Automatic annotation (TrEMBL):
GO terms for molecular function: ATP hydrolysis activity; zinc ion binding. Residues 448-475 are annotated as: Disordered. Pfam families: HATPase_c_3 (PF13589), Morc6_S5 (PF17942), zf-CW (PF07496). One of its GO terms (cellular component) is nucleus. Signal peptide: none annotated. The keyword Ribonucleoprotein does not apply. This is CW-type domain-containing protein. It comes from the Eukaryota. The lineage of its organism: Eukaryota, Metazoa, Spiralia, Lophotrochozoa, Mollusca. It comes from Lymnaea stagnalis.
């Protein structure tokens, strides 16, 4: 056993910990979220993430491909190790905060979805391959987690030929889905199309006790579905009946559409882009509120709350609070106040809140239910009830519901642009770009996003009349 110079023994991480650590994700989509976060965070800075199913030989693999900055050998080693997290050093402003906290997301997420993961990554200086494999560790009888890593120089993909590199290559070829180095280099060459990026293969996918693969790839060829989410997610204290499970629990596409409060990265599932939902910009009769608990510090900013009615066709099912932490969804459609009653009070009302100062649970699917969290939820319930009391009559008489403002995401720069009043989002083309915006101030990809409009604008009157005046005339 290796020892420090003073004789103090090093701790080890038993390979069995890879499995036990992954069980924090009782819901498969929670594991996906960890992997998506890794691409989304500003240290990777990916604009696109592709999630797909790929057969390599006789093995079915989940793949995740991003066009981020890639990783060198040291970074890929840290990603495959435990407890390394320097994401807090990356911050591109209030609207782009890193989600990572514990340096554990890749390990827990990938090992929840399958027993083994192979990572290909190319940065500006080099290309690397790393293997995190329970199958490999079990086969060699390892008493600690070890990760074979190969490093190649660019542009010719040459590597060292010493014993250490050969051992790493042998392990990767024997225990991954690729049987030759030429096939490995083929994957690295494929990354050159985006200059830098990372592709992850997850194989030996998680199976149920029946032996069937847990995730459903057959029901919808444009989606990945979770057929039994009501059995998997036990974190919700207000569990719904099986027949009332919301679609985002069953559909990865639907879950990804609401995963971020301010969507930036384009997510593509099985070759088809996800239509992101900027929930706070998809409401009507919206109100902005602020709330600052007495126990918050003097310099702490108050909580911003946006409340409004859903315009969606499923508004009688999907309503409640959307709770985010550092832009990432923690709980969706959390019903509070009137919404917990068996009547129509509060139905269709959505509140969007970002609680950055509340600690999320280890699996990032909820918040710790302490006194601070409970006091905030109580205050939010009071505000939601008051909103319903003041707006219910207006809402009942509102015909032809459209959001207070129609926003659309550019397929080139991923920025969100506000359109003319009365614009129906369903009438827009499948691909929309900034140059299509009628507002000349915000019709170029290099322009920053327009701030939210004040809630007291004459939008509601213009909306009901289907006014088509440009934004500059209704601000």
């Amino acid at each position: 056993m290796a020892k420090l110079p003073d004789g103090i023994e090093l701790s080890k991480i038993n390979p069995k910990y890879l499995h036990s650590n992954s069980t924090s994700h009782v819901w498969a989509f929670g594991a996906f979220a960890e992997l998506i976060d890794n691409a989304y965070d500003p240290d990777v800075d990916a604009t696109t993430l592709e999630i797909d199913i790929q057969k390599v030989g006789n093995m079915q693999c989940l793949t995740l491909l991003d066009d981020g900055v890639g990783m060198d050998k040291q970074k890929i080693k840290k990603m495959l190790s435990f407890g390394y997290c320097d994401k807090d050093t990356y911050n591109n402003g209030e609207s782009y905060k890193p989600v990572g906290l514990y340096g554990n997301g890749f390990k827990s997420g990938s090992m929840r979805l399958g027993k083994d993961a192979l990572v290909f990554s190319q940065c500006s200086q080099s290309a690397c391959i790393g293997l995190l494999s329970q199958t490999y560790l079990e086969a060699i009888g390892a008493d600690s987690v070890i990760v074979p890593i190969l490093e190649y120089s660019l542009p010719d993909l040459n590597r060292k030929n010493d014993r250490q590199c050969l051992n790493n290559l042998e392990a990767i070829l024997q225990y991954s889905v690729f049987e030759s180095e030429a096939l490995l280099k083929g994957q690295l060459n494929a990354l050159k199309s985006s200059v830098t990026g990372t592709k992850i293969f997850i194989f030996n996918l998680h199976r149920l006790q029946s032996g069937k693969v847990e995730l459903d790839f057959q029901s919808d060829r444009k989606d990945i579905r979770c057929p039994d989410p009501y059995m998997a997610d036990t974190t919700n204290l207000d569990c719904r009946p099986v027949e009332d499970v919301p679609e985002y629990k069953r559909s990865l596409r639907e879950y990804c559409s609401i995963l971020y409060m301010r969507p930036r990265m384009k997510i593509i599932i099985r070759g088809h882009p996800v239509k992101s939902k900027y929930v706070s910009k998809m409401l009507y009769l919206t109100e902005d509120h602020q709330y600052k608990p007495s126990w918050m510090g003097r310099n702490d900013k108050p909580i911003k709350i946006k409340i409004g009615f859903s315009c969606a066709t499923d508004c009688n099912e999907n309503y409640g609070l959307m709770l985010y932490h550092k832009n990432r969804l923690m709980r969706a459609y959390e019903r509070v106040g009137y919404q917990k009653q068996a009547n129509e009070r509060g139905v269709g009302v959505i509140g969007v809140v970002e609680l950055d100062f509340i600690t999320p649970t280890h699996n990032k699917q909820d918040f710790y239910r302490n006194d601070h969290f409970n006091s905030i939820m109580s205050a939010l319930a009071t505000k939601l009830n008051a909103y319903w009391n003041s707006k219910k009559e207006i809402q009942n008489n509102d015909i032809g519901k459209l959001p207070d403002w129609t926003w659309v995401q550019c397929d080139q720069c991923n920025m969100w642009r506000r359109l003319r009043t009365g614009t129906d989002g369903d009438s827009l083309p499948k691909q929309w770009f900034c140059y299509m915006n009628k507002d000349a101030q915000y019709n170029r990809c290099y322009e920053d996003e327009e701030p939210d409009a004040p809630v007291d604008t004459p939008r509601r009157k213009a909306n009901n009349k289907r006014n088509t005046e440009p934004l500059s005339q209704v601000r």
